[in-house]
Amino acid sequence: MTAPAEPADQAAPPEFPMRRACPFSPPAAYAELREREPVSRARLRVDGKPAWLVTRHDLYKKLLGDERVSANLKLPGYPLQVPVPQETLQSVPLTFLSMDPPDHTVQRRMLAPEFSVRRMRELRGRVQQIVDQQIDQMLAKGADGPVDLVTALALPVPSLVICELLGVPYEDHGRFEEWAWAIMNHDISDEDRGVAHYELDRYVDGLVTAKEREPGDDMISRLIEFNRRTPAVEHSDIVSMSKLMLVTGHETTANMIALGVLALLEHPDQLAAVRAEPELMPKAVEELLRFFSISDAGTARVALEDIELGGVTIRAGDGILPLNNAANHDERVFPDPDRLDVRREARSHLAFGYGVHQCIGQNLARMELDVVYSTLFRRVPTLRLAAPVEELRFKDDAIVYGLYELPVTW
């Protein structure tokens, strides 16, 4: 006897993450999910476990503003994006990103002054110097042929900036960039990822220990001094905060620099607009952040209680993935969302997340992107791609979307 066909509503849930069919657009399924089932089930590619996807802008904000969800990745049901053995997961300390209040609140309060708008105004001149120096070097290399913008500009600028902020020797940047790549790659082996975590932890621990003995004028030293005046965290917490700033402080911005340059080169009308009206660049930065939404599932959560969202009951213990790339292409908020428009009022985008865990380094990222894009297109007005977009390698295998290389000439 043949088994009866499975009803359509019982079909196997889609696998996550979903691949982008076009480098400039979110996965095609996101638009359908937003309209048909904005809170829907999926199966995680990393371990086959179920999780909820949230694809609508208003529901994304509602979920991340709800105190009944947790960022704690050690909780059962948390939707991990990379494979981590349970014994390893339970043995490592939580980072700032994975803490819930009140622990998260304590660490955020310590870090917030380092990323204030006023602090960014003070840093802007130094960032401008770094960008100019890197473009000088890039122009010198370009005399011999095409240059990879990723290695010449996109990686060095945020790496130099975060090294100066933290007080990390820049000569070590190659090592922590490799560790960051291994930690954020979907497809690397458990063993190699574990080695990267171990080496990075050991490196940052040594750095913090040295600054405890001999402080300098840098963020890590100020965190140590703040904690001595008002004890709130342990040595290991300062190591964890420093590690997080070191990895996230360059990886996301580096990817946005390369992607933003590519997008503007491929949309010459938009590039012409910001060249004609330089005051548009802050808007262009917001639009590019919305357009790419490179950390699509960076706000993973687990439900602490049963939650009603979008007409669906999410049970306590269920994993949830609010997708900022889906929410940032919600037609209800951003008309014609797949079109790049540097005049768009895109500040309501969710590229930096939402709620208590909203990215603490967003002011730094905005400022760096503004300086890099403005300076590059002013100083190199004939910049163009040296390879077709179809031949470029995009980071479909990583947690943070980006480009492996971007050959350019002028």
From TrEMBL:
Gene3D superfamilies reported in the protein's UniProt record: Cytochrome P450
Keyword set includes Oxidoreductase: yes
InterPro entries in alphabetical order: Cyt_P450, Cyt_P450_B, Cyt_P450_CS, Cyt_P450_sf
Start and end residues of each stretch annotated as Disordered: 1-20
UniProt keyword terms in alphabetical order: Heme, Iron, Metal-binding, Monooxygenase, Oxidoreductase
SUPFAM superfamilies reported in the protein's UniProt record: Cytochrome P450
Pfam families with a match to the protein in the record: p450
Low complexity biased stretches: 1-13
Family the entry assigns: Belongs to the cytochrome P450 family.
Protein name: Cytochrome P450
Native species: Streptomyces tricolor
